[in-house]
Design a protein that fits this description.
Elements (H helix, E strand, L loop, with lengths): L8 E2 L6 E2 L2 E5 L3 H18 L2 E9 L13 H12 L6 E8 L2 H8 L5 E7 L6 H11 L3 E7 L3
Parallel strand pairs: 3-4, 3-6, 4-5, 6-7
Antiparallel strand pairs: 1-2
Length: 148
């Protein structure tokens, strides 16, 4: 999907466009930084904001309310990544057993999502995630970065 295809949504009254939220799904640090840069460009063009979703997988022996890494630690870690953005960014930590299932639970239908990943010719975990989200009816932008 090209970034030019996205347009601000009109409000119910038709007078002013509603701000559009661009969702970034956090993966690795480099991939998330790449996705945040692309989402910043999209959100700026659409006069919107960014929602950074951090899925934190909790293993089955633990209760969902007691993840192995405290949510506050992850929130601080990703706040450092998001602070370089000029667009308002909200961080949402989502606990679950499975990343895709957790994303389906928290994403509104037809969300605009940016996923970052390494530039490769083979399918990576991030590319598969982007494809699965697209199959679920979301508008997905995959942004890649060069890395070693």
């Amino acid at each position: 999907m090209s970034t030019a295809a996205l347009a601000p949504l009109a409000s119910a009254s038709g007078l002013a466009p509603e701000p559009r939220s661009i969702t970034v799904v956090a993966t690795s640090v480099d991939a998330t930084l790449s996705a945040l840069r692309e989402a910043g460009i999209l959100a700026h063009r659409l006069h919107g904001s960014i929602r950074l979703i951090v899925t934190q997988i909790v293993p089955y022996p633990l209760p969902l309310s007691r993840p192995p890494v405290p949510g506050e630690f992850n929130a601080r870690r990703f706040r450092v990544l998001a602070d370089g953005n000029k667009v308002p960014t909200k961080i949402q930590i989502c606990l679950g057993r499975d990343q895709l299932e957790t994303l389906h639970r928290v994403l509104p239908p037809h969300s605009t999502i940016v996923v970052g990943g390494r530039k490769t010719w083979w399918p990576t975990r991030e590319k598969r995630l982007a494809r699965q989200l697209q199959r679920s009816g979301h508008d997905v932008v995959f942004t890649s970065f060069e890395g070693g």
